[in-house]
Amino acid sequence: MTMMRRNAIRLFLAAAVTVLALAVHARGGGQDTPPDSASPQPPRSLRLYVMDCGTLHIADMGRFGLKKEEVSTTDLSVACFLVVHPKGTLLWDTGAIPDAAWKPTGSPTTQHVVLSDSQERDVTMIKSLTAQLAELGYSPTDITYLALSHYHYDHTANANEFARATWLVRQVERDAMFGEKPPGTTQPSTYSALRDSKTLILKTDEYDVFGDGTVVIKSAPGHTPGHQVLYLKLAKTGGVLLSGDLYHYPEERALDRVPTFDFSQEQTRATRVAIDAFLKKSGSQLWIQHDFNGNAKLKKSPNFYD
Ligand SMILES: [Zn+2]
Q1: CA of 183 to the centre of ligand 1 (A)
Q2: Cα–Cα distance for residue pair 85/264, rounded to 1 Å
Q3: pLDDT at 39 (0 to 100)
Q4: Which of 24, 190, 244, 272 lies 20 to 30 angstroms, CA to CA, from 96?
């Protein structure tokens, strides 16, 4: 064997050892912790991961008080968000299609949903939520808190997977979810396990999840009785407000339209005024979760905002 070959092999071995060491480090595995059961080390400062939970195709624009000609696209993005704080994790919304209901192929596949009130929807999926979490080293049982912006099916699909997290919800929302007759546009089977979750009922307009003002759930009723939005104070990005379904299309905001299926259109209008004032005062950006073009521009997990 020539010297050069031997050096090349040595170099290859050194590189392999480095890759292995990095892999163990990235998973946060210590020497006495098997890597598979180890969740990632908490970061020093707040991170926000944007996850792809599909694209929802809308046939009836009238429900949003809009005409097809008034919007740049009728498609809606479905986003899920993982917030990672030094003190724990919060999952915000869980998608439209349960991971258990389909198999990712690597290419877009269209899933058909029939809702509790017989409405039907098509959603194009590429990645499962649990696979996106696993890519970061998290399993559903690692998640500290679960919060849904509201109970509609396109936000609850994987809620049952996170029944071991502490659920952050308002009483009126929980009451509607588990009432005798499920509200419209829901899939109660996707969140039924939350009935027995450790639950924290949010009673104040603002709930500071980790106690340092960086992750705050704000009451934003109207779309549903206990609809809420999420404010994040990120060190580099600045203030970001995740809209829930306060708006779906940016044109709803520009043209002042309110969906016809809101629980209370009057309440939605009042909430929009209050949130506009908050955005101005805090200098925050509003991220409309369902805004297809806006969402397309966001960095996706495993990249993150900090
Ligand atoms: Zn929605």
Answers
A1: 14
A2: 34
A3: 78
A4: 272
